[in-house]
Design a protein that fits this description.
Elements (H helix, E strand, L loop, with lengths): L6 H4 L13 E5 L4 H12 L3 E6 L2 H11 L3 E4 L5 H9 L5 E6 L14 H22 L3 E12 L12 H18 L4 E7 L5 H7 L3 H11 L8 H13 L7 E4 L3 H4 L1
Parallel strand pairs: 1-2, 1-4, 2-3, 4-5, 5-6, 6-7
Helix pairs in contact: 2-9, 4-5, 5-6
Length: about 260
């Protein structure tokens, strides 16, 4: 005679409450790639999203897809535009994710000083400006999230400012985490991510790069924007995380 199933074995599992239910997530650079995927994941987890981007048409398309609460078209490297945007937000939001900006490659010996200043402004100074403005709106223990990379940890000819920015951002994030507490500040460090930006940078070499990564990465697949978005949402919901740099590169830095 078989034993009757236990109550715990037969009881249905209770549905999980969405992790960001009732919260508001701002994504700066939320019209494509990692930013757009993070906004999608936040919506799935119950959040309202506010999107920004430089291209108004693409911004409206993304907002319509996601049912965004509101949008704003501006350049995140413009301090006045950043200040104006955050002044216009509701008094309290929960999280801000910044994916705006792209790397500049080339030899430092060849870069024009004006371009070098734009690199500093477009990465370090942009992070500082967004953090200072956003911290006035983000609730205690809410998250500010910024992007960096892992490849730049190993300087090489032609990386330009990538290695310098990669080295500087963790220190800046840690300092901001101390000074802006209890608002949390963290970095996500990505390796190659299969996005439209990657396609633009690599052109005809994109498929070769994908094949190489599938063969050499410990995870045996290419990292996608969904992988980064999942990490971003986890950092938003885990209130014990601040001042850290969290890698999502499929082990790329271990083999390259």
């Amino acid at each position: 005679m078989s034993a009757a199933p236990s109550a715990s074995a037969s009881a249905p599992c209770a549905p999980r409450e969405p992790a960001l239910l009732g919260q508001t997530v701002v994504v700066v650079g939320g019209t494509a790639g990692i930013g757009l995927e993070t906004a999608r994941r936040a919506r799935i987890e119950g959040a309202s999203v506010i999107l920004t981007g430089r291209a108004a048409e693409r911004l409206q398309s993304a907002a319509k897809e996601l049912g965004a609460t509101s949008t704003a078209a501006f350049d995140a490297t413009d301090p006045a535009a950043v200040e104006q945007f955050f002044r216009g937000l509701p008094k309290s939001i929960d999280h801000v994710m910044v994916t705006a900006g792209s790397p500049h490659y080339g030899r430092l010996a060849d870069i024009e000083l004006a371009d070098a200043r734009r690199e500093v402004d477009g990465h370090l100074m942009m992070v500082l400006q967004v953090a200072r403005q956003a911290a006035r709106r983000v609730r205690p223990r809410g998250a500010l999230l910024f992007m960096t990379g892992t490849a730049g940890r190993h300087p090489a000819a032609g990386l330009g400012f990538a290695s310098t920015i990669t080295a500087a951002l963790p220190g800046l994030a840690g300092q901001l985490a101390i000074e802006l507490a209890p608002v949390r500040v963290n970095l996500i460090a990505a390796g190659f991510v299969d996005t439209g930006l990657s396609a633009t940078l690599l052109g005809g070499e994109l498929e070769n790069r994908r094949a190489q990564l599938r063969k050499t990465l410990p995870i045996r697949r290419v990292v996608g924007p969904g992988d980064v978005a999942a990490l971003a949402v986890h950092i938003m919901t885990n209130e014990a995380l601040t001042g850290g740099t969290y890698d999502v590169d499929g082990g790329q830095q271990l083999v390259e």
